[in-house]
Amino acid sequence: MNPYIIEEHEGLLVFTINREDKRNAISYEVMDGLEEAITLAGEKKIKAMMITGAGEKAFCSGGDLSSFHELKTAKEAYKMLKRMSNILVKILLFPKPTIAVLNGTAVGGGCELASACDFRIARKGIKAGFIQGTLAITTGWGGGTIVSEKLAHAHAMKMLMEAVPYKTDELLQIGFIQSTYEGDSITAGKLFLHKFMGIETEVLSSYKQMFLRKLEQNRIEERIQAEVEQCSILWGEEAHHKQVNKFLQKK
Ligand SMILES: CC[C@@H](C(=O)O)C(=O)SCCNC(=O)CCNC(=O)[C@H](O)C(C)(C)COP(=O)(O)OP(=O)(O)OC[C@H]1O[C@@H](n2cnc3c(N)ncnc32)[C@H](O)[C@@H]1OP(=O)(O)O
């Protein structure tokens, strides 16, 4: 089965992580897919991009631990973290509106991926959190830096440091998600963007640039690079490998 699906719905590019049995964990193949989707979303006929996951259990459970666990040293981890952080930067700085539709749990890197989008909506009852701390690492794809820009200081720091999944009412309250939905995820995403789709692409892009200028002024890319480097160091430590082993041995 293809690990991702790319579809076009009347000017909306929809990317679905299609690894339901692995809770939509991000493998290198999913990274290939995200890179392809970003390129396709750049086409003139596309007004906005949506990212979601297959099924109802998970939006994305972060990096594929069974595969990335092979990366033992800081240097090995850096390559993977850097590649995915480049993808997050492309989504963050994408010149058109982007939305993450959290069809299910979003944890670890899944929460980072969602943070890179302009908007996040969630199915009622899901949970989302930066649980990286429980694996003795920090965010490493740029998500910590991104969330520090998008949420109030105390909310962002609390969410990162607590390292627990939050319920939808808490996610709404801190502003991590903008609304909740019931039913089909793609329909919910389309409904959220409905009014945007009637506006000229150039107008949407011009507004997006206003927000991007602020991020550039705040040296976002330089700060994301520092996050990648810091996480790589922690990744190489025994404490991290011990926690990942615990998760993998639960099988
Ligand atoms: C690597 C980058 C780093 C970053 O920079 O941010 C990270 O992303 S670190 C964070 C990595 N993610 C996690 O630690 C989450 C791990 N997963 C879970 O906690 C749970 O699976 C879940 C997401 C809360 C869902 O729980 P549940 O519905 O009970 O499912 P299972 O736990 O039984 O899992 C089913 C199936 O999926 C496999 N799985 C789940 N997550 C991952 C993952 N991240 N990588 C690889 N595989 C994953 C799990 O092993 C099960 O597989 P099988 O036993 O083969 O059925």
Automatic annotation (TrEMBL):
<dbReference type="Pfam" id="PF00378">
    <property type="entry name" value="ECH_1"/>
</dbReference>
<dbReference type="GO" id="GO:0016853">
    <property type="term" value="F:isomerase activity"/>
</dbReference>
<keyword id="KW-0963">Cytoplasm</keyword>
<dbReference type="GO" id="GO:0004492">
    <property type="term" value="F:methyl/ethyl malonyl-CoA decarboxylase activity"/>
</dbReference>
<dbReference type="InterPro" id="IPR001753">
    <property type="entry name" value="Enoyl-CoA_hydra/iso"/>
</dbReference>
<dbReference type="InterPro" id="IPR018376">
    <property type="entry name" value="Enoyl-CoA_hyd/isom_CS"/>
</dbReference>
<keyword id="KW-0413">Isomerase</keyword>
<protein>
    <recommendedName>
        <fullName>Ethylmalonyl-CoA decarboxylase</fullName>
        <ecNumber>4.1.1.94</ecNumber>
    </recommendedName>
</protein>
<dbReference type="GO" id="GO:0005829">
    <property type="term" value="C:cytosol"/>
</dbReference>
<comment type="similarity">
    <text>Belongs to the enoyl-CoA hydratase/isomerase family.</text>
</comment>
<dbReference type="GO" id="GO:0006635">
    <property type="term" value="P:fatty acid beta-oxidation"/>
</dbReference>
<comment type="function">
    <text>Decarboxylates ethylmalonyl-CoA, a potentially toxic metabolite, to form butyryl-CoA, suggesting it might be involved in metabolite proofreading. Acts preferentially on (S)-ethylmalonyl-CoA but also has some activity on the (R)-isomer. Also has methylmalonyl-CoA decarboxylase activity at lower level.</text>
</comment>
<keyword id="KW-0456">Lyase</keyword>
<dbReference type="InterPro" id="IPR029045">
    <property type="entry name" value="ClpP/crotonase-like_dom_sf"/>
</dbReference>
